[in-house]
Design goal:
The chain is α/β, with parallel strands linked by helices. It has two domains: 171 residues, Rossmann fold, CATH 3.40.50; 106 residues, Dihydrodipicolinate Reductase, domain 2, CATH 3.30.360. Helix content is 29%, strand content 26%. The strands form three sheets. The protein has a six-stranded parallel β-sheet with strand order 5-4-6-7-8-14, with helices on both faces. α2 links the parallel β4 and β5. α4 packs parallel to α5 and α6 runs parallel beside α7. The protein is elongated, with a radius of gyration of 21 Å.
Length: 287
């Protein structure tokens, strides 16, 4: 245990990056963070946010497209290989915002290194999540998979679950930018699962004799609920849950205006996941 005089600026000045320290009779810890997918829209926002945290240290930024690049405002050079970055920088937490087609390989590498993970990449199957839960427990690590880190989206789902007790006829519309690779969104799937639990499983909706004149016109279906995915430039991420009853409708909607709205949730995940072992699905599980 290292006794540190002075103030928090002194801690930064001497480059202390991990472990526990006494400062003005209080115990401080600095969490070492590696961001994977650091050049992407979300990854770059996470990098900027981590650099502003007094209790975190950005030890590595990894992106396969980042050869010979330096993190803006620092002398930290991007790494293009996750495995070597894990070995060389020994992070406490990896924040992964990559792609559905590579995320499982990334997470196997991270968890087998005994490192905790905070994951915003979506597109996981039930078997994927079962594998990750087992792998995290085997390596005494925690992994948070959050389809949505926006606190407003978490509240949207919570309010919707209350409304579903009284309005069981439901459809979901999710709207994202046109570069999103998976549909429906992880948030829409999680919302549907939570609402289905409240409704007690399958609930028949609509006319049983209805016919789609164009395939897919009624969207995807989960336990009787229809889910519609919109992909257009101009959107970041939005979701609307529509409840219908005799003579009235109710709409609950969340709109993400920019990616800054996700950062409080990502930082919360980084601060909390080390306390858990195994898989945590959904940011609401840490609130």
């Amino acid at each position: 245990m290292l006794q540190i005089p002075g103030n928090l600026r002194y801690l930064k000045a001497v480059g202390i990056t991990s472990g526990f320290y006494f400062y003005n009779k209080e115990m401080f810890s600095v969490t070492r963070i590696l961001v994977n997918g650091a050049l992407g829209r979300m990854g770059s926002e996470v990098v900027r946010t981590v650099l502003k945290q007094s209790d975190m240290k950005l030890v590595a930024a990894v992106d396969i497209m980042a050869k010979d690049k330096t993190v803006e405002g620092t002398d930290l050079i991007f790494d293009t290989d996750l495995d070597s970055a894990l070995r060389n920088t020994k992070p406490d937490i990896v924040v992964d915002f990559t792609r559905p087609d590579v995320v499982m390989k990334n997470l196997r590498t991270i968890l087998n290194a005994g490192v905790c993970a905070v994951v915003g990449t979506t597109g996981f199957s039930q078997s994927d999540m079962a594998e990750l839960d087992d792998l995290a427990k085997k390596n005494n690590s925690g992994i948070l998979i959050a389809p949505n880190f926006a606190l407003g989206a978490i509240l949207m789902m919570k309010v919707a679950c209350e409304a579903a007790k009284y309005f069981p006829q439901i459809e979901i519309i999710e709207l994202h930018h046109d570069q999103k690779l998976d549909a429906p969104s992880g948030t829409a799937i999680l919302t549907a699962k939570k609402l289905a639990e409240v409704r007690g499983g399958f609930v028949a909706q609509g006319n049983p004799a209805e016919e789609e004149k164009l395939e897919g016109a009624r969207g995807a279906e989960y336990e009787g609920m229809h889910i519609h995915s919109v992909r257009l430039p101009g959107f970041v991420a939005s979701q609307e849950i529509i409840f219908g009853s005799a003579g009235e409708t109710l709409k609950i909607r969340n709109d993400s205006i920019n990616r800054e709205c996700y950062m409080p949730g990502v930082m919360l995940g980084c601060r909390k996941i080390a306390e858990r072992k195994g898989l945590v699905y959904g940011l609401d599980q840490l609130l």
